[in-house]
Amino acid sequence: MLRRANIHVDLISANNEDYITSSHDVKIIVDKKIDDIDNILDYDAIVIPGGMPGSTLLRDNDKIIKFYQEMYNAGKLVAAICAAPIVLSKAGILEDKEVTSYPTFEKELNCKNYNNKKAVVVDKNVITAQGAAVATLFGYEIVNYLLQDNTAQNISDAMLVPILKNNYKIQNLRPQIKISEVFRIIISSILLILSSQLLQLPVYKHQPQV
Q: pTM to 2 decimals?
């Protein structure tokens, strides 16, 4: 969604490798390595995807914690989804914020208010989201925060997000399936970088259109 909005995205590996292998063996080629970043404040936002064990590894990475603290203190956007809000908590930037996360990580967050009802929570320059199923909404809020125009809504409409909201229930086909039958199901899916369980640090830099 960010690239659809013409926002420049640098996908950065926190382990200084040329590519990242997710917990489901998906290999992602990165744009930069963490040691390539001279000044994190050159960026307008920093976003960490969730998943394990990536979130705990990033939480225990002092350089990433410093990045988050610098960005937050400069008033720039910091965001995390799924388990990744534990990184923000470690950085000490949630103490006066309303946040959300993957439900099982609630007790690990030192925050003012935990909201388990909202898919995505925006509190000033901090955006948090619950998990993979809401990654599109997470991306929507990031685009909306950075551009503050109609771009996010236009992209949402083009991606048929309203249709998704109206058809969220999974149809129960169980009565039509015979126990003796064997099915091979091929699922075509879209890889959402923001919701993959990756050991990575994507950073987003806004380049206004001319």
A: 0.78
